[in-house]
Structures are given as structure tokens and as C-alpha cells.
Write a structure and sequence with these properties.
This protein has 161 residues and is of the alpha+beta class. The protein is rod-shaped, with a radius of gyration of 29 Å.
């Protein structure tokens, strides 16, 4: 009996009756991985003597090698999906921004929480790469500045009155 090919072994763990994603540009049902997953819910597959991400194998079978410096993104947003047409190669930055994490949320903001625009004139980049609103920074400095008041010295003539 011939040993099964990696593609044949892979297909044993694929359920083609997954959900239909409601995302523009993603067509067809997800192909769900029924094999092992890691702690984050990503599919894992034993190939070439190591435990790899199953969606990497699926991408390479459908599209060829993953371009250097790119990640494989689940366009359908389903971590267990291994359907080749739902997978795409993106740079790490684009992959992070395509997700629904806090970095993507903040990058999509066009105004600060007080309504000032994030434009070239009003935005300062911090050392860690995040954005700061210059108008809000000016207001914080204004409110934190000590208030100087003019007082009349307490002289003996004034005390007698």
C-alpha cells in the first residue's frame, strides 16, 4: 500500500461545509480544519518533519510559495479556514491593519477622541510610532500651567484697616 501524499493527508482533516463568510470579496464556504490547532485556534499540520501552520500549506498548494516578507491572511477572518481562495499574502503591517485588533482600530481613526483631526499639521508621532494630537497636548499644557495671581502684600497699614 502506497504512503499517502501530504496533500492526501491534508484533505483528511478538511470539512468543506463550513460557514459562508459575510465579507465582501470572499466567495464560497470556509473549508474548516478538523485536525489539531494551537492555543490561538490556528490550524496545525505535520509536514516535512515539522508541525506547520496548515493554512500556510493550503496557501502554497493554491498559490505557490509565500512571498518573502509576507504573512498569510485569512480574508474570511476564520482562523480554522484552509480554503485557498480565502487566503492571501500580505505584508505583516497590512495583515495587522486588516484585522480587528486595537492597532487596526487606532490606525483607522481620523480624529482624536476630542474631535481634532489627525492631519499633518495637528499630528505628532511619538517615539513608539503612535500618534499624538497637538491640539490636545497644547490644551493639557495650558491647564497644567500654574495660575499667577497678583496679591497685595500684607502691610501693617492694611492690617489696621
Amino acid at each position: 500500500m502506497a504512503r499517502p501524499t501530504p496533500a492526501e493527508r491534508f484533505q483528511r482533516f478538511v470539512d468543506t461545509n463550513g460557514p459562508i463568510p459575510l465579507i465582501r470579496g470572499v466567495h464560497g464556504r470556509c473549508h474548516l480544519w478538523t485536525g489539531s490547532t494551537d492555543d490561538n485556534g490556528y490550524a496545525r499540520f505535520w509536514h516535512n518533519g515539522r508541525n506547520r501552520r496548515a493554512y500556510w500549506f493550503a496557501y502554497e498548494q493554491a498559490h505557490g510559495p509565500i512571498p518573502a516578507g509576507h504573512d498569510v491572511d485569512h480574508h474570511c477572518r476564520n482562523r480554522r479556514c484552509v480554503r485557498g481562495s480565502h487566503l492571501r499574502a500580505l505584508t505583516h503591517r497590512d495583515n495587522v491593519l486588516a484585522s480587528s485588533n486595537i492597532a487596526a482600530y487606532r490606525a483607522a481613526q481620523t480624529h482624536c477622541k476630542h474631535g481634532h483631526p489627525f492631519d499633518d499639521a495637528n499630528t505628532r508621532r511619538r517615539k513608539n510610532g503612535t500618534r499624538a494630537c497637538r491640539a490636545c497636548e497644547r490644551e493639557r499644557r495650558r491647564l497644567a500651567a500654574p495660575v499667577l495671581t497678583l496679591t497685595t502684600p500684607n502691610t501693617p497699614e492694611r492690617q489696621a484697616a
